[in-house]
Structures are given as C-alpha cells and as structure tokens.
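Lay summary. Proteins are chains of building blocks that fold into shapes, and those shapes determine what they do. In this project we predict the shape from the chain. Here is one chain we studied, written as its sequence of building blocks.
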Amino acid sequence: MPATDTTAVLDRAGIDALVAALVSDGRTVVGPTVRDGAIVLGPLDGADALPWGWGSELEAGRYRLVRRTDGSVFAHTSGPQSWKTFLHPEREKLWEAERSPEGELTVRATEAEQPSYAFFGVRPCDLRAIAIQDRVLTGGHYGDDGYARRRNGAFLIAAECTEPGATCFCVSMGGGPAADAGFDLALTEIVDADRHEFLVRVGSAAGARVLERVPSRPADGPTRQSAREAVDAARDRMGRAMPPVDLRALLGTSMDAERWDDVAARCLTCGNCTMVCPTCFCTTTEEVTDLTGEHAERWQRWDSCFDLDFSRLHGGPVRASSRSRYRQWLTHKLSTWYDQFGSTGCVGCGRCITWCPVGIDITEEVSALAQEARS
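And here is the predicted shape, written in a compact code that computers can read:
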C-alpha cells in the first residue's frame, strides 16, 4: 500500500502511546538511544529511552553528541549503525551437524525464531537502503532466507529529516530528507516556541491500524505546512554533495585514474566504511567444530572487500593493493551496482565519511575523479 493522505498530529504523550502500542503487540521495538557517547540503535521499552534533547556534531572522521535546548528527539544524524544490523546481522548460524557414536552424521538447518520487529525513527536514506537490500537479498535465484524472515512483517516508522548533518548528501544521490515510500508510519517533528509535536502520515493498512490506537488530533493546514517547510529547509542544507555528473559512467571509465594512488596513500583498508554502510551486504562463511570433532556449525558473517582475503584465489588475492581494494569498493557502489541490481548502491547517508578514521570523504574523491577526467 503506498503512502496515503491520512495525517494526524501526536504530542509527547502520543509518542509514548505509539511505542507502548507496538510493545503490547509483542514486537521488538528498536530505535535510537544514547549509549557509549553516541546515538545508537537498540531495543526500546518505552519512549523515554529515545534521545530527547540530544543532537550530534559530525565531520569527516569526527562524531560527538551535543545537548540541545529544544528537547528535539530526531534532531540528530545517523549514528554508526544502520538497520542492516538487525535485518542482516553481523553473524548468523546457518546449520549444525552432529556425529553419533555409531558414526552417523546428522545435519540440521538452523531456523531460529525471529523477532517481530518495529523500527522506530528510520531516516529516509535508510528507508532507501532497506529497499536496496530487499532487492539484493530477496531478489534473484539465491535469496537470503534469514533476511526474508526478519524483513517480512517488520513495522517501519520513518522520521523525516529536519536537521541534516555535515556529511549528509542524500539529495545529490536522488533522495532527500522526505520519506516518500516504504514506511508504515512517517513522523515529522515540529518544534518551535509554542509547540513540540509530530505530524504523522500513514503509509500502510498496518500503520493505520496502529495509529487508531494512539491518542492524536487531526492535522490542520498550518501544521502540515510547517512540516513541509521544515523538510524543504533541510533539503537546502545538505552538508555535502556529489558532483553533478553521471557517476555510473565516471567510475566505469576511471579505472586507471591517478587519484586512486592518492586515496590509497591515506586509506587504512580497515573496512569501517563497509561496516557502517547501510547497503553493503558481502558475507563469508566459517565452520566451527568442538574438540571432539563430533559437532560442527557453519556461520555466516559480514565480510568486506577491503579484507585482503576477500578476493583470495589459489595463488593469492586478486586485489592485493589498497588502491585496488578502495577502487573496487567505490566503483561497485556507484557504478557496477547498476549492472547487478539496477540502481546505485549509495543513499548519501554520509556514514562512510563520518566513521572513516582518517576522514576520507567519498564526495571529495568522486569530485577529484571527475576533475581528472575533464583535464
């Protein structure tokens, strides 16, 4: 069901009731909360756990929490995690095997019971990232069954952006701070001297049913206008932007660019960018046995194209240099992703910039490649 014109207005008590309604449905509610000096995603027992009055300051290679005076709950930017952490977890058991005393081998697939998730406060860039991972992990001939089980039935509450960060560039990637699809409910926070409330839009029949159980008032014209203006203003305040070029063509024709040497001299090949990226999906498998050799397990875990062993074949790795590994990551993300999945693999969230320990800026690197291509 696409987004509808149904709107309502919630106050703080309405947000409390919304979280409580989802918890009472038996859902595992996950949302932003303050922990360990950052706004991270974690289970919510109630709305009090949300980051009321907290914001964030960030730059390339830099992140810190700041206190706000207006009590806003969504005036922060994306933290180090994305919803990939829950839908496509870092480590997952695939099967286990037992050898009986008589030597008989029994192999059992692992299908652990999956939580019924409700994601609270999903940014529009992350909505697009979830849609991309849906295509990657549930499309084609070899879907990820675990991902599909977690994704099916997940309830998504979007939070439109009114405070973009210094490393955000979603608009230049064809997105924006507005939630346009893929949600059950969408919230737009409105804070001024006279009010602190949330315009809520319905995006699905499930969202409409939940909203019916939450105290609200009908949205009037001025409230809807205030929400639109807040989101439109955020669109004009992006901290970064990709250059206005055909990224797919640029990366596809820049394999021998000198700029790769420049970024390789700075890149630590630590893989932080792939770990925080909401669309990176690469995995590997590993087998674990006990000391007796009578029990074995196969686990799937995240992998990264920055790992030296990622491209290892007989005789050694295909991409041994940091230049080749960084080039592989960026070229796949912005160019060859189209060949596989029909879209870009970047949503402009800026996490790879913020959480790079040496502050490598993907928009700066692409701009340098574009300039080199023109010269």
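What the prediction tells us: DSSP finds twelve helices and 16 strands in the chain.
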